[in-house]
Amino acid sequence: MQRAVDKARVLIEALPYIRTFRRRTFVVKVGGRALEDLALRERLAEDLILLSWVGVHVVVVHGGGSQVSAMLDRLGIAATFRGGLRVTDERTLEVVEMVLGGTLNKEIVRLIDRLGGRAVGLTGKDGGMVRARRHRDDLGLVGEVAAVDPAVIDHLLGDYIPVIAPLAIGADGETLNVNADPFAAALAAALDAEKLVLLTDVEGVLDADGSLISTLRATDADRMIADGTIGGGMIPKVQHALAALTAGVRKVHIIDGRVEHALLLEIFTNQGIGTQVVRDPEEGQP
Fold first, then answer.
1. Which parts of the chain fold into alpha helices (H)?
2. pTM recorded for the entire structure
């Protein structure tokens, strides 16, 4: 009986969040273990479906770097990285498109559909959704987002979960490979999203003692990057979070995608499980 009561309490705790976020847009960026582990992928699909069923407009952006690397290895194509970004020549881009825009994207769509949701697979090239410029000459066909036209997504929201691979159209009509985090941040800004959620393979942002920071204000984030408290691969994630906030996204969450139902635990519970990155309060406000 107590277990049943505890479940009821969880549902009651979620009610105000469901009411607040109904018809609001969440952009969820998925990568790492949440994509690689089948059980975690299924739990994530369940979370996305539940959000959709309670009226949240969910948009999914997925990475897939390890899957791309595995396919390159199978084909005997060497993978090269500079500054954490994949050097993308024409042969590599063919594999990136095949894996991100094809196999992996359609697997996520299939899984959502199989579990009772309704999803549509896209890339940033569809409908001229995302246009990009070359990032650096030494990276080849790698882009950074220049403009987003969310019209295609707007037509789908409320009926389907768009699942989007981070490929974009370049100035000359070429396909460009875009890092999924800034791609998702730019998309969230264009959609006037309530939340951008970045699923990672760590708990969230940690302080100097290694403890999880549940709420991180923008000025504190800048200071912690400057003094080295935030380092390594977390720096670009926090920087993309800050850029999304500046562009109008209300809140960014950096959470551990290795935790089952991490998305629901972060969104629908009072404590959450990761780090929420927020704007600084207005002057005179706490």
1. 2-21, 33-36, 38-53, 65-74, 90-96, 105-114, 151-156, 180-190, 218-226, 234-246, 262-267
2. 0.93
